[in-house]
Amino acid sequence: MIRTILMLAFWSVMLPLAALVCFPWTFLTGNVNFLYRVAMWGAMTGVRLTGVQVQTVGLDRVDPARTYIFMSNHVSNLDPPILIPLIPRRTSVMAKKEVFSYPILGRAMHMGSLVPVDRGNREAGIAAVQAAAEVMRQGINMTIYVEGKRSLDGRLLPFKKGPFYLAMEAGVPVVPVTIVGSHHVMPKGRFSIKPGVVTVIFHEPIEPKDFGDRENLMEKVRAVINRGLPSHYQEEEPETPKDTKIHEGIRNV
Q1: How far apart (Å, rounded) are the C-alpha atoms in residues 127 and 9?
Q2: What is the mean pLDDT of the segment spanning 35-50?
Q3: 141-145/69-72 β-pairing
Q4: Are 159 and 176 in contact (CB under 8 A)?
Q5: Closest by CA position to 177, among listed 51, 244, 80
Q6: What is the rounded CA–CA span in Å between residue 35 and residue 21?
Q7: What pLDDT shows up at residue 238?
Q8: How high is the pLDDT of residue 247?
Q9: Considering the chain, what percentage of its residues have pLDDT values greater than 70?
């Protein structure tokens, strides 16, 4: 509990300081980069204050000069402040449209190219996909938690279809990401944080030429993220036709 309070206290102090210094600079210059760097430093520093150690695997697979959609599993409230600062260059996210109504914060979010989304409105969801594709055409990454909500037990939930419409629309590589360990340090439904190690695995990017159709891409991303989970959290992968023939051959021996 003390570690959680320490992190929140740090963010509570930092937020008004950022508002006093970074927001005016951002609004005067029209450049959000300084505010973004401060926010990323603050997010990661807050996590470190809790005693959580973050290690990465495969980050060298990501070319900082390219634009990607990062698709990740989601098991804890700590996932965003852990993952997003690790991503090379700026990344955008989709956020609830209500947050954009706050006068100063909403303006900063618009300048940061964050994408408002109304999850209860299908037409608005389509518009959000188109807006996100336009953001990526500007060279800004997109980070999406493809389950849409946090898992209670560390296993993968059904994936939302929107991120895969977006991938097909934007035509940029998809990087599957597996977050391991945040479920233990701060599971869904628990306020307190305990020290531990969180591993963020950046898998090999899936290039647009290898997407296939939307359903095929979803299956590929799910299979890759699933393989990065600890074995007791993995779901059994469906057999390929080749595997089925091998098993049939064994039964006939």
Answers
A1: 37
A2: 93
A3: parallel
A4: no
A5: 80
A6: 9
A7: 60
A8: 42
A9: 91
- Separation CA 228–CA 75 (nearest Å): 14
Largest CA distance in the chain: 76
Phi, psi of 117 (to 5 degrees): -140, 140
What does pTM read for this prediction? 0.87
Look up residue 146 and give its two tokens. 């493809």
Q: Which H, E and C letters describe the chain, residue by residue? A: CHHHHHHHHHHHHHHHHHHHHHHHHHHHHCCCHHHHHHHHHHHHHHHHHCCEEEEEECHHHCCCCCCCEEEECCCCCCHHHHHHHHCCCCEECEEEHHHHHCHHHHHHHHHCCCEEECCCCHHHHHHHHHHHHHHHHCCCEEEEECCCCCCCCCCCCCCCCHHHHHHHHHCCCEEEEEEECHHHHCCCCCCCCCCEEEEEEECCCECHHHCCCHHHHHHHHHHHHHHHCCHHHCCCCCCCHHHHHHHHHHHHC
Residue type, 96: K
